[in-house]
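JOB MANIFEST
job_type = single_chain_structure
chain_count = 1
residues = 475
[input]
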Amino acid sequence: MPVADEFNCLNLNISVPKSPAALAASEALPVMVFIHGGAFTYSMNSSPIYDGRLLAAASSDLSSPTIVVTVNYRLGVYGFLAGHDIKAYNAAHGETGTGNYGVWDQILALRWIQRHIASFGGDPARVTLFGQSAGAVSVSAHLLRDEALFSSAILQSGLLRLCGVKSVDEYQGIYERMLVELGIPLDAAPADRIEGILAVDTERLTAAMVPVFIVPVITMALCDDGVLVEGSMPGYEMYHSFTPPDWCRRLMLGDCRNECIIWNKSWDSLSRTPMALGQDMSTPDATLVLNRMSELLKSPEKAQTIASLYGLTGSSSPAETFNALERLTSHGLYAQLIYFAQKAFPAMYAYHFDVPSVFENAWGGMAHHSYDNVLIWGVLRHLLPRAQQEISDQMVEAWVRFANGAEPWERHDKAGRWMVFTEEGAVLKTKEEDTGRGYEIWDELHSGGMVADLSELSNELCLRGSELRVGTSSN
């Protein structure tokens, strides 16, 4: 069984379809390269759910043999911690920038694939980069870089700022919190502080992240260091002008209905009776939530506008408050940003994933973040009811068709329709047909210039960045 090891993790798994059609192919095969999610802190390419052999075998069954590659990259503080001390340390060793090392690992893997995938029968000119969650954030970052390492892209549940983007100053504060937690004196010389943290063993350094990052689901952010993305990284409002580079004009982009349920434990600070709704779920108090929204937005008027749009009042029950928080944060960090990206560049394949989880856990019955992976990768297919097995087959075929240069479904600019995957089937829908999604809320926020406000509010409710900055030099 593979073990997690940040010092020996830079590997990739290559699954080549074994079939007469694939082996006898006269031309090189298209390649699908997957970047896993996990908030830049968790998971690995060897996680059983990402077994590329099943997807490669399915591509052969569809008479579209495709090579599937899953890549690893450094995670947590090893992959993303940044700051002025680290930047100076890098400069002393001939490197520029700070942080984002995990993304640079991905770049190394993509360059390797360009050079060597032909030896496995793959076509370096037909590489589809796809990622989910933090993996989609990574794909978004690669699209902003001017290096043509792939020709098409699939972004599942994520754009650039999903996990946050921090300045070097902000990351310096987090770095200093790490030093305090590890007992390294803040008044030591910068070089000595770096040497001190480098001397800490892996287990202790990783464990220090838990108290430092506050939130139960530790989430590492990208660093806006002016190097990974030349200049500065776009803010939330920039998705109104989302445009892919000329070398990658084939895109697929979509979301799940209940994305932000993954951060529900972050709302415990706004609750009075934790877990009353079921396992691992808090019951937020409406008054506390409304007050916190006003504080975070620095505007009672904006807080009231957003609360009204999501049906949240001071008399909302705990269950109603919880559901409103889940919906507004799912919209703020995922759905509305993806919607505006689709509007800005409609020549893409747009989708929504509404298939509810069949597993008996806290998120059962929800089309929650990452459940789309269950259907696309197929490892747990045998545990799904027949209807979901059929949706899984349709999604696999769509992803493979896209990687092979074919249309997975009608492109969004043809008639303004999204492919909506539900338990009953997959159907193309317009805004008018896809009722209850939230389009009218996003359009109203856009008209009032409050798209960024909802996203920033959602980021604070889930990742609690302002609390993370308290007592640091970045505050």
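[summary]
DSSP finds 19 helices and eleven strands in the chain.
The first strand starts at residue 12 and ends at 15.
exit_status = 0
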